[in-house]
Amino acid sequence: QQQVKQSPQSLIVQKGGIPIINCAYENTAFDYFPWYQQFPGKGPALLIAIRPDVSEKKEGRFTISFNKSAKQFSLHIMDSQPGDSATYFCAAPTPGGATNKLIFGTGTLLAVQP
Amino acid sequence: DVKVTQSSRYLVKRTGEKVFLECVQDMDHENMFWYRQDPGLGLRLIYFSYDVKMKEKGDIPEGYSVSREKKERFSLILESASTNQTSMYLCASSFGDRVGGYTFGSGTRLTVV
After folding, report:
1. Do A41 and B106 touch (CB under 8 A)?
2. Could you tell me where the beta strands, DSSP code E, fall in B39-86?
3. Which helix (H) or strand (E) covers residue A45, if one does?
4. Which of residues 80-99 of B touch A (CB under 8 A)?
5. How many other C-beta atoms can be found within 10 angstroms of the C-beta atom of residue A53?
6. Cβ separation of A107 and B99 shorter than 8 Å?
7. Nearest-CA distance from B30 to chain A in Å?
8. Could you tell me which residues of chain A have a Cβ less than 8 Å from any Cβ in chain B?
9. Using one digit for the tens of pLDDT, what is the confidence trace for B1-20?
10. Could you tell me if A44 and B90 are in contact, meaning their C-beta atoms sit under 8 angstroms apart?
11. B67-104 pLDDT tens trace
């Protein structure tokens, strides 16, 4: 069974800090690695995703780094703000089955203190 | 604004009851998914459907079944609810020919007493 291992489980940083969340996968149907952000009382929403043709992708203050040989990818949040406090999930497409489906990591609860 | 709508935000049911969780999407997505979310365990796939009347088991299908009679609606059924099914249930949908791009509903918090 495909697993995506995510760490840390929780993270506290000060405003302006750079939290880093890491994920490792075993096998993937193809190289597409998204990150989802979930605020309390809401469903997860797609934050940013990376495909295999690049090793890094930036969208605003959020950056994904991808290391294919190590089967790892990470999320960096530059100049973090209290509004970034949320749960973050990484995911990877799992091989097999009739359609593309994502397997999610266990989540990281991020708290950004003012 | 496109969305995935889950019929109930909070639900309390008794052990042994048959429970229906409903999900409707208005994006004409082929794929629909049911996940459960538990602290420390993340999002675990229960069942998914890639077309009307088509379904596949996810990682934790035991104790659950699903129904998809129309493209926009995907129902999760707990045949005989048990206390270990107390959880947050999330529905998601996506286009069939695209990777990821899931749109999630806001979830149903189910408590089985």
Report:
1. yes
2. 42-51, 54-57, 64-70, 73-78
3. strand A45-50
4. 90, 92, 94, 96, 98-99
5. 7
6. no
7. 10
8. 1, 6, 9, 30, 32, 34, 36, 41-46, 49, 89, 91, 93, 97-107
9. 669 999 899 999 999 999 99
10. yes
11. 999 999 999 999 999 999 999 999 999 887 666 679 99
| Contact present, B84 and B26 (Cβ < 8 Å) | no
Could you give the CA distance from residue A35 to residue A92 in angstroms, rounded to a whole number? 9
Find how far residue B64's CA is from the centre of its chain. Answer: 10
End-to-end CA distance of chain B: 36
Residue with tokens 């190289």: A31
The structure tokens 């109930």 sit at B8
* CA triple B84-A87-B46, angle to 5 deg: 35
Six-digit token string for B58: 């996810």
Q: Is the peptide bond before A93 cis (omega within 30 degrees of 0)?
A: no
B24, amino acid identity: V
Tokens in use for A42? Answer: 């809401």
Residue with tokens 């979930």: A38
